[in-house]
Input
Amino acid sequence: MAAGAGAAEGPGKDCPLCPRLVAFRRANRAQFPDWHNAPVPSFGGPDARLLIVGLAPGLRGANRTGRPFTGDWAGDLLYGTLLRFGLARGRYAERTDDGLALVDCRVSNAVRCVPPENKPTGGEVAACRKFLKAEIESLPRLKVVLALGSIAHGAVLAALGQRKSACKFRHGAMHAMESGLTLADSYHCSRYNTNTGKLTTAMFEKVFAGIKSRLDRA
Output
């Protein structure tokens, strides 16, 4: 399924909402003219029951390739895990033309544009909230939202109209939302987290085992 096919429309190529991100985008277009260098659309079909929400595109990953989590270590772990649990088919080769297809899931980010040093500000997360909200509302079969990291967790809560105090981020937790959705938490599958041992492959796979079990029972 092509990225963004049939679901909510995201920000345009030249989204003006965040001045700092606009300036960074322009600088990257000048330095790397053959890269994507624009808001990165979601990947997966509109029939997804699982939505995975990351933080933001990586500079040399999704910002380069134009597909979430494609071209960096985080994608190796994420898509490898999705393939293992039957939530993807084909193969992941760090390119948008690698033939990888998602099954019953969709991948997006809390912030659609690459931020300097991979660190979006609170204002930038808030500015992109309407796109995440529209994304969630556009998926009629959605059952579970997986937040990768505490910022994504807070962004999902805000998009659902719930206070951050409603439930705290905790790796491996599954929170029942007022809307009927389940919000699942995992540490982000970044190279930093895996290199430091904060997140292991076994820990990440355990989160997906719990999600897959929940979806199989739904």
